[in-house]
Amino acid sequence: GRLLMQEAWPALPSEVEDEAAAAEMNWVGEAISESRTRRAEMNVPAAARLAFGYNDASERGERWLATHWRAFETLARVTPVAPEGSMSKRLGSWETARGITNAGTVQIVTPEATLLLALAGVIDANAESARLAKEREKVVGEIAKIDRMMGNPAFLAKADPDVVEENRARRTDWEAQGARLDVALERLKAL
């Protein structure tokens, strides 16, 4: 017989679908994902708990942050901080952490709130900038290598069309990685 894991998910009747709940959970998932992406971009140690705050939250955003506090704390590895900028004071709810505008934070703009992750004292901005600049140089070199190959008429005449397409795709991937590195470098400059 077939295993349960091989079966399709049951189709729910439309009357049990909750668009508001789906929108809430989609926002929470995207906000946590963006927080984790920023941590990875900035090479934040996995065990580090970052101070967290938020600004410009809609009423709905504040409610969602308060409701899903534990998910943010666990999955985004954050700790809320006092609005006065006291990075060491741990608070019991997201509501009391709003309004933080400390230097050394990375902003994550979402439709419901601007989330702030404090990186001051967690990473060495100069060392991280140097690391990202080195990675950016590698990307430029890889793109130049592909451009030389693709600019060679003899290569294009002999190469299998799949190889040519693969190199075009690789160039696109390298360009996207370069763009991500540029954004990360700009964020570091703002620290």
List keywords for this structure.
191 residues; alpha+beta; four-stranded mixed beta sheet; 53% helix; 10% strand
By secondary-structure content and strand pairing, the structural class works out as alpha+beta
Number of helices: 6
Number of DSSP-assigned strands: 4
Query: Into which percent range does the helicity of residues fall?
Result: 40-55%
Our estimate of the beta-strand percent is 5-15%
Name the helix and strand elements from N-terminus to C-terminus, one letter apiece.
HEHHEEEHHH
Runs in which pLDDT lies below 50 for 5 or more consecutive residues are 82-96
> Taking all residues together, what is the mean pLDDT?
83
Biggest β-sheet: strands ordered side by side in the sheet: 2-1-4-3
What shape does the CA trace take?
A: flat
Determine the N-to-C terminus distance: 59 Å
Radius of gyration: 22 Å
Verbal overview:
- With 191 residues, the protein is α+β, with helices and mostly antiparallel strands.
- It is 53% helix and 10% strand.
- The protein has 6 helices and 4 strands, in the order αβααβββααα.
- It has helices at residues 19-41, 59-67, 69-75, 125-150, 153-158, 161-190; strands at residues 50-55, 78-80, 105-109, 114-118.
- α4 (125-150) packs antiparallel against α6.
- The radius of gyration is 22 Å and the shape is flat.
- The termini are far apart.
- Residues 82-96 have low confidence and may be disordered.
